[in-house]
Amino acid sequence: MKSIKAINLSKTFTHLNTGRRVEVLKDINICIQENESVAILGKNGAGKSTLLRMLSGSLYPSSGKIHIEGKISWPVGYGGGFDPSITARDNIKFISNMMGYGYEKSNIIQETVEKYAQLDGKLDYLVSSFSSGMKSRLFFFTSIIFKFDFYLFDEISALGDKNFEGSSNDILSEMNNDSGLVCVTHNVKKVSKYCDYGYILDCGTISEKLPIKDAIEAYEAL
Amino acid sequence: MIRQFEPRYNTPGSVFRNSVYALTVKSLKSKFGTFSFGFFWIFLEPLFHLIIILTIFGVVFGRLDGDLFSIRTLLFTILNWFLIRDIITSNINTLYSNRNYLGFPTLKPIMFYISGYVSNIITSFSIQGTFFILALIFLDNFYFHNTWKLIFIFVIASFFGLVISIILASLSINKPGLKKLLILSLRFLYIGSLVIIPINIIPDPFSIFVLLNPLAQLMELIREIIIPSRDFGISISYILTWLAFLSPISIFIYYFIGRHID
């Protein structure tokens, strides 16, 4: 059974100014089952993105354990996985290589991303010359073109401009059927559409898993 | 429905192989992809370095007597030092300059270090090969039978670069201040590693201490390969013992400190 489980997870950072250790997350316990869509809601600075990055494995917890059964994506809205100093094509090739696709298959991946991200003829431009909307589309499609068991979305509302929102909504709905989604966001409208359950993250601690309606109510009451 | 592709990794080995390959290709592409000044600089830097040293010691101090400061020995001590230096600096900096990529769950620090190592040895091998051919053509008393010995030195130097870089990068992974200090301290290691100054002009009581540094012995070994008449008791087993000692330490430090990014 595919799942993501975090047990007694804590994370401390060293404060850059004071040099003191600051506990951002304490004793976090979460469990996300196969094909389950879960939102993590909380105020700014509550530690949502930190938690998501720990789930993705790109950040180590200070204590506690994370058990992952299945393939998990990188945080999609995080947007950090692209090198702005190289072309979009080279970035796609890099990710394709990393995912185990050689030159031939990488071409198909490039074409598919170019088509869906509406970047006709722009794949050979440097990513730094892209508008924020183009970057969002590029990163979104290069991420979801690979089939993962769980997709992590950091700020689900930051996926692109209005034209793009329609197509991304359709794709998210389709993905929702055969993959798990973990969304970190402030956008309760989208969350209520795509997620079945929610966790509330407040002052470094997390609530129990709540049905999404209750989770949104609890979040709005914060 | 958008066409999706299954990630083709099922074992940790395939994840490692794919990621190191992707990072190496990206690194080489950003280095050689555009025909810029940076491309020429990797060939010009050792030449400029050589010219400056020959000017200082040869013209100013009049010590260019063929044995102490000769082009053929300086060229290969400098090139091998650059190999070690480049592996160390690129690996210390890699996680800071590639922060963008830390979002990918499959990428671990060791993959950045190995790919930095591979891309640097590919670059350095091309440079050393080019200069080796130029030395064969233009320099007197530079023999082809040195090839295998210099390749052996190249391999040993690269391994030293790798183990030292893993240790230093792991120790400074969450400490940007320490990272800068370590990069600065490479200048002292450069002086203490006999890259320019051969052991025979260092006064006796100090030369014993200098030769405790395995990199100093490695640079002297290069001089002994190119000028076989030199004999300062350089021991290859001493150099290899240091390498064998540092390798498990680098694994240990990486495992307990270097894997955890704040």
Structure description:
The complex is a heterodimer of chains A (222) and B (262). Chain A is α/β, with parallel strands linked by helices and 222 residues long. Chain A contains 7 helices and 10 strands. In chain A, strands 3, 5, 6, 7, 8, 9 and 10 form a 7-stranded mixed β-sheet that branches. A 3-stranded antiparallel β-sheet of chain A has the order 2-1-4, covered by helices on one side. In chain A, strand 1 and strand 2 form a beta hairpin. Chain A is globular. The two termini of chain A are 34 Å apart. Chain B has 262 residues and is mainly α. Chain B has one domain. Chain B contains 9 helices and no strands. The longest helix of chain B has 30 residues, at 109-138. The radius of gyration of chain B is 20 Å and the shape is globular. Chain B starts with 11 loop residues before the first helix and ends with a helix. The A-B interface holds A 13-14, 53, 56-60, 71-75, 78, 80-86, 90, 93-95, 97-101, 105, 109, 112, 116, 141, 144-148, 171, 174 and B 1-9, 14, 18-19, 21-23, 25-26, 29-30, 33, 99-107, 174, 259-262.
Largest sheet of chain A: 7 strands, mixed
In total, the number of strands of chain A is: 10
CATH architecture of the domain at 1-71 and 184-222 in chain A: 3-Layer(aba) Sandwich
Report the β-strand fraction of chain A as a percent range: 25-35%
Radius of gyration of chain B equals 20 Å
Oligomer type: heterodimer
Based on CA inertia axes, which overall geometry of chain A fits? globular
User: What average pLDDT do the residues of chain A reach?
Assistant: 85
* Euclidean distance between termini CA atoms of chain A: 34 Å
Give the overall silhouette of chain B. Answer: globular
> CATH class of the domain at 1-71 and 184-222 in chain A, anyone?
Alpha Beta
Largest interface (CB within 8 Å) is between: A-B, 42 and 34 residues
- Poorly predicted spans of chain B: none
Instruction: Give the low-pLDDT segments of chain A.
Output: none
